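Team,

Forwarding the record for the chain on the shared tracking sheet. I've put the sequence and predicted structure together so nobody has to dig through attachments.
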Amino acid sequence: MTVISRNPADPTDVLVDLPAPGAFAVADSVERARAAQPGWADGGAAARSAALGAVAAAVESAGDELAALAVREVGKPLAEARAEVARTVAIWRYYAQAPFEPTGAVHDTAAGPGLLLTRRRPHGVAGLITPWNFPFAIPSWKAAPALAAGNAVVLKPAPEATACALRLAELVRQALPEGVFTVVPGGAVEGGALVSAADVVSFTGSSQVGRTVVRSATARGIPVQAEMGGLNAAVVLPDADIAQAAAHIAASVAGYAGQKCTATSRVIAVGAALDPLREALAEALRAIPVGDPAVPATVCGPLITEAARDEAAAAWQGLSVLAGGTVPDRPGWYAAPTLVEKAGPGHRLLREEVFGPVAALLPARDLDHAVRITNAARYGLVTSVHTADLSAALGALDRIDTGMIRINAPTTGVDFHLPFGGAKASSFGPREQGRAALDFYTATRTYTLAPAAVRS
């Protein structure tokens, strides 16, 4: 296999063209990481904290360069690319404090003298498999807690984000001992080899690949988490601020061409909200700036590949198009932000994640009906509810079957210091981010300390 990464706004611009290293190279990287890991873990909290802080500083210093690279390699609009780099800096700074957190607790014995201790210890080598859409933030929110807890890391990025991953690795390795953080480019062969060799695995990507990763890791008996996308709904009640809701939803549908697992793809209008929301949302989507991601005003840039663009375009065929529904005639892989209606229950837009700037507008009789529509999807990552009624908002919280619920806010947006993850087909295993990540990258050991018998 050859690893090729192209600029989606200008497919003639090739950033990476190199042979995939193969399974044996992945195994070698894991073994080098395994050899380096004890020294990293035993070096103490202060050393790990200083190293992660140094990574944050290095990323911050290279911020403009990294943002430009994300624009070029994955087509991320410049404003979003800059925001991602800033978030990446914040992630490393947040986890730079984690080595000083308590790693266990002391308990009294049930009977007699002695102590019972619990202590969380690193697993060893963390194998990370990451997507292309957040080429700096997702590798960082996996790697930083793994490293803070004392693990070594081997990262296998998506081929489309290889240049970003290699540049991030250069910055990270400046602050870490040799072998503690390694990037192995490649595809399915390299990813499978990493799952077969690592001591703990974290994956973000498609549900099809994620299920394979989970099966392989669980068969080996190692901890695994998998984030596998969403089919996210925005529920709008009649008392909502329709203009605000439309603005939030339009940004969630079209921002970065809908290429986020938290993007909105189903818009559920309750009762009398349907007509005004239809008009406001269609207008908001038509106003979204589409074009060159290097232009600061651009909100919706290209899709990552030609196949992704064609898949998005196929999703609106045969439906009533309220906004968009066109493929701009320009170099690169673009699709206009699109809103459709009259999608039947079996339509793909209501069953599978399209990962493009396309959303379906659906009517609901009341909030109960809207909750049923929301929960009908096999995914359950995030739902937004737009209403001025606090009672309605609170009433929806415990009935919506998604891992995250956002009231009067877009479905997009991640708080890196809180647990991230979904329900049903969206996620498998423990949550990412925040303290939950530190728990995932460590194993609890229970120690019994009993006094020695006293000799007379």
